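Posted in: Structural Biology > Protein-Ligand Complexes

Title: Requesting predicted complex, zinc ion in pocket

I'd be grateful if someone could produce the 3D structure tokens for the following input. Sequence and ligand are given below.
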Amino acid sequence: MLSNTEIAKKLLEIRTLMEMAGESFYKYMAYEKAAASVENAPPLRDLVAAGEHLKLPGVGKSIGAAIEQLVTSGGAEQLDLLYQRFPPSLIEVLGVSGIGTKTAAMLFTEYGIASLADLEAAIAAGTLTSVPRLGSKTIENWKRGILAYKGRQRRTPLPQALAIARQVVAHLQAGPPLERLAFAGSLRRAEVTVGDIDIVCTSQHAADVIGHFAQWPRAEAVLAEGPTKASIWLSGGLQIDLRVLPDHLYGNLLQHFTGSREHNIKLREYAVRRNLRVSENGILNLENGEVITCTDEEGVYAALGMQFIPPELRSGLDEIELARARTLPVLIQSADLRGDFHMHTTWSDGDDTLEAMTAAAAARGYEYHAISDHSRGRARRFGMGADELRRQREEIAAASARYGIRTLQASEVDILPDGSLDLDDDVLAELDVVVASVHTATSQSREQMTERLIRACQNRYVTILGHPTGRRFDSSRGYEFDYDAVFAAAARTGTALEIDGQAARLDLPAPLARLAKSYGVTLALDSDAHRTGDLAAIEFAVGQARRAGLGKADVLNARSLDDVLAFVARKRNAA
Ligand SMILES: [Zn+2]
Ligand SMILES: [Zn+2]
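-- Reply #1 --
Done. Output follows.
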């Protein structure tokens, strides 16, 4: 069955195709309005069943009928009729900047271009150069537009995007003077993957800043360059947009460009009910015509009578309701972290020595950290058995004393295919903390994997389930299991779930961390560092935790060492 969002998408598709078909503005805009109210409505299947969908704002008889058909069959008569005129694949052509509905309709009816691939082929073949209305400049622009469109379809993992964004910022800071600078968009919201990088800044020298930006040596192409805005393109398919904002509108614009789209739609709808119209140009009071502009984002939310909403929470879920009631969670921050439970050394597959990792953890200001080298594993050449762990303990005591940090001994112990662990209980009992992870037999069925993870949680020595979904950006989609069953087991057994901040992982991702919290699970934010420089990856775990709405109380390593040890002991001593 289609979700509200999917139904809204279909309504927008109808809207677009109607515009292509030359229907009147009022007719097709009605579908756009209906789509917006559908997105914010209770589940449509319930509304339709009760005949209540006709009460939604902007939903009249014919749109109501389309909604009903979409709910019951997933399709709509009207959409089918439109498909007879224009193929659905034509819509992606509209993603190319510079191509509107009229042009798309013309390309299809006159040249048979039905998709982006058709358009690319026609450009490559030179077919379109003979079209009188199309100059060579237009076609050049389309080529760039296609490049940009494809880039938008591809998403870049957050850690990778952030590394690039920081390089651009370094380049910008070496240029004409800037006043304020911030990331916007999905990067600022700490989404696991980003479509493009948005950077906003203020400066007295907008044109110079733009010119300097466009000359970044790493830019493959300049997609657009205007007086206050430019877009560049990197090889590998990442677009970077820079906007130089007027200072008096900085708050409004930063809010606007941070999104998400869903959040901004909800915010605007809420504002309209209070007779306010929110846009990037300020907040217009519809009663007296006054426009409120804000130099900072706090001002925008304050003007709407709500708490400031941290960017990571702007997902269009319940954040606006919570901000109005002033009950937003106080989110965990990096400064709240007192330690890190997951890091490797040369004792297993880490690049740096135990001593170096301990020094680096102490330099981060931690009160404690855990060395969690891999257990030996059946197929592993390296790793820790009982003897190695005993010898490592002496090294830990020495390093811990030298750097004035409490170094805990842990193991990242493999969860074997049947859910038992790679080290015996009497060996685990000697450790301060145990991180248990799946690294092998990842293609098990969902049922087997669910059983396996639950069994691991049931082991009294397992403190933390490491990178619970096993997914990696570079290689693995991860394994499937019943999240509800495993999270409930973690809560019941007092097992923490990890948010692994390693750049290739970000696991658990925010939506699952949110689900885990709803089961009352404690989360551990870790770096899973294999070298000193990667301890900072814990920041990515913090980002996901914030997106999940986690506060200090939800996070194991925001607690004092005594409280952590009590958490471990509580599970070990439970009957
Ligand atoms: Zn691991
Ligand atoms: Zn690890």
